[in-house]
Design goal:
With 379 residues, the protein is of the alpha/beta class. The chain contains twelve helices and ten strands. The chain has three domains: 102 residues, Rossmann fold (3-Layer(aba) Sandwich); 58 residues; 181 residues, Rossmann fold (3-Layer(aba) Sandwich), CATH 3.40.50. Strands 6-7-5-8-9-10 form a six-stranded mixed β-sheet, sandwiched between helices. A four-stranded parallel β-sheet has the order 2-1-3-4, sandwiched between helices. Helix 4 packs antiparallel against helix 5 and helix 5 runs antiparallel to helix 6. The longest helix is centred in the middle third of the chain and has 37 residues. It is globular. The structure holds guanosine-5'-triphosphate and magnesium ion. The site of magnesium ion has 4 residues, from helix 7.
Length: 379
């Protein structure tokens, strides 16, 4: 694939020592999250400045802020400016020219992490597809910006430079989609086999870093990578797990984040689709965080699950990291969600606390799910 990106360069190993200045918003949750994202992409964050809104100006930020940023990066030596919003390619270019720093937006940053973390063939293709979807509108923007309606925008065949660029991007997209289709067919075959065996299928879901893989490893006696860094897991692993006298299939996959671009969800659709087919979804929550963070992360998770067509009845809320959590906070949270009809279980995946209770609840929820399904079939 073409390695050129518009208004920004891709992440590479040099970023491990690179410093970055961040432009974010006043609320502390958003600031903490963009810092973690920058860290996960390999940046050392020197400074963070905030704006109430990222203005749709020629720089993305206000003119005064652009000047402030220029002086700031000159002083703190940042090579990169990360803007915690979506920028057009001309905004990124303009800001880059004024500040003499590389400028990347939130989506580019998330894509860089995904590109860095993708380990399987399918995950790599999914990231490439997302890259192309990110580039499409920027390519249009970029070519217009450089051509500004002049004849030099036309190639020898009478096509505009936009057409040529677009066709190339589209061709790449078709090619990747074809390859992904193969992986998808393979997945569908596996699914069909699973369904034949009639083994209940359980998916772990939740915000990135909530502890999905830690729980998966405990329940499946596995050793998949767990880490405080965001987006540690990008591909799906499924294992058979003993649940008292029977067996279930348990699946761990990519985590969620707020303001996740739709095309990224679309690119990872075949991975995320598994959630829609699960008999039960364990929605993992990091209960050790502030009530505000928990709410924001839960709402984002519900939003994404809704986009994927998952209904609430199949969700079991698993309140994790109880070894660090404040009990009063969790009591309030549990009461609120019980009021909305959710079943909850408290655990510490790291310590292995509450796993017996979790298994009991899984068994119970699977029974209810089967009963509901039978009722639907009879109706
Ligand atoms: N204290 C404590 N830490 C935990 C617990 N469960 C997970 N962690 C830690 O939380 C961090 C994230 O855990 P992971 O299992 O990698 O989280 P994940 O949800 O799989 O994250 P992604 O793959 O990035 O989406 C790791 O540093 C874990 O050690 C817990 O019960 N208690
Ligand atoms: Mg994980």
């Amino acid at each position: 694939m073409d390695s050129t990106t518009f208004g920004a360069k891709k992440s590479d190993s040099n970023h491990l020592t690179e410093t970055a200045t961040i432009v974010s918003f006043p609320d502390l949750f958003t600031q903490a999250e963009i810092r973690e994202l920058a860290k996960a992409a390999g940046y050392h964050v020197t400074e963070i400045i905030t704006q109430r809104r990222i203005i749709k100006s020629e720089f993305g930020v206000g003119v005064g802020k652009a000047e402030e940023l220029k002086n700031m990066v000159e002083e703190n030596g940042s090579k990169t400016i990360i803007v915690d919003e979506k920028l057009t390619s001309s905004q990124a270019n303009n800001l880059s020219k004024v500040t003499h720093a590389e400028v990347i937006d939130r989506e580019r940053l998330i894509l860089n992490i995904f590109a860095k973390r993708a380990a399987t063939v399918e995950a790599k293709l999914q990231v490439q597809l997302a890259e192309l979807k990110y580039e499409m509108p920027r390519a249009r923007d970029e070519v217009r910006y450089s051509v500004k309606g002049e004849r030099m925008g036309f190639s020898g065949m009478g096509e505009t430079a936009v057409d040529v660029r677009f066709k190339a991007l589209r061709r790449q997209m078709v090619f990747i989609n074809q390859k992904l289709k193969k992986a998808r067919t393979q997945r569908q075959l596996q699914r069909a086999q699973r369904q034949k065996l009639q083994i209940p299928f359980i998916s772990l879901a939740g915000y990135t870093s909530s502890g999905k893989t830690t729980l998966f490893n405990k329940l499946a006696s596995e050793t998949k990578e767990e880490s405080p860094s965001l987006f540690t897991t990008l591909s799906t692993t499924t294992r058979a797990v003993r649940l008292f006298d029977s067996e279930v299939l348990l699946s761990d996959s990519v985590g969620f984040i707020s303001r996740l671009p739709t095309y990224l969800i679309e690119s990872f659709k075949s991975t995320l689709e598994e959630l829609n087919l699960a008999d039960l979804i364990l929605l993992i929550v990091d209960a050790s965080e502030s009530s505000e963070s928990i709410q924001i992360k839960l709402e984002s998770s519900f939003d994404i699950l809704k986009q994927l067509g998952v209904d609430q009845e199949r969700i079991l809320l698993v309140l994790n990291k109880m070894d660090l959590a404040k009990r009063e906070n969790v009591d309030v949270l549990e009461k609120e969600y019980a009021g909305h009809g959710f079943k909850t279980v408290r655990i510490s995946a790291v310590r292995g606390d509450g796993l017996h209770r979790l298994k009991l609840q899984i068994k119970e929820s699977l029974k209810t799910e089967t009963k509901n399904e039978n009722q639907i079939m009879r109706a």
